[in-house]
């Protein structure tokens, strides 16, 4: 009996020691958290996986301005171009999840990483924390103004009559320019030939020069050429008209609601970035998008302001991947 009593006292003493140790560790952990510098305590890099001067640059700089004003500190835009945005995006996916490296990316990079690549450099659904959708630019169906094509039906008929003579240009395999045209091929039952380029300027140069017959770019890229009469815009691939080309009807208006395509821009962080940080950023961006000053700046660049929760962004991206995966399989396009 004495032995059992001693054992009981030893067990209680051991348990008490463990509780003291646990409490001590908790106190140390709380003290460490209390002593940790508040975010951001140093420069935050917003990686733009495109070359300086592209259409994503102004938006990335607006985001950097908004966050710097809201949180103080330094937010910089860091360009890491290459491989349709995959180089910069892969860099962020491998970065420390501490809130000091963010990614500004878009449809052509995030969706294509899943749908186009045999060897995926990253998975947008599992390698990132989705923060917020920022804005989108609708694609527009345009043709060489010298062609006898004035609407979508005539474009489809022309493509059927010239099966080897309809070339469409894009800024690369998997880009929104490319996939928008493949969506048109699928919906309208035609087959136009894809010709990829390295830059928007090269595409529009060959379209105006007659080497290409059609292109499906973002509205801002070709708005001036449409207004000059060098290109003819047939339809904006969106439910609502755009302020950039207000006289151009939408595909929905014309009876083709399934012909919808836009390049959306969003902010993401490496997987595991603290929710406390991503939630702060989400709120800051949403608050900014609700102000006339920021909204008008986006609209002037051709963007439709978006916003919303991170959960909404995640769900939306999953739907986009599913939608465009069907188009990629239809086209047979693949990048190894």
TrEMBL record:
Signal sequence bounds: 1-34
Domain of life: Bacteria
Coiled-coil region: none
One protein family per Pfam: TctC
Protein name: Tripartite tricarboxylate transporter substrate binding protein
Originating species: Sheuella amnicola
SUPFAM superfamilies the UniProt entry points to: Periplasmic binding protein-like II (SSF53850)
InterPro entries to which the protein is assigned, alphabetical: BUG, Bug_dom1
Similarity comment: Belongs to the UPF0065 (bug) family.
Keywords from the UniProt entry: Signal
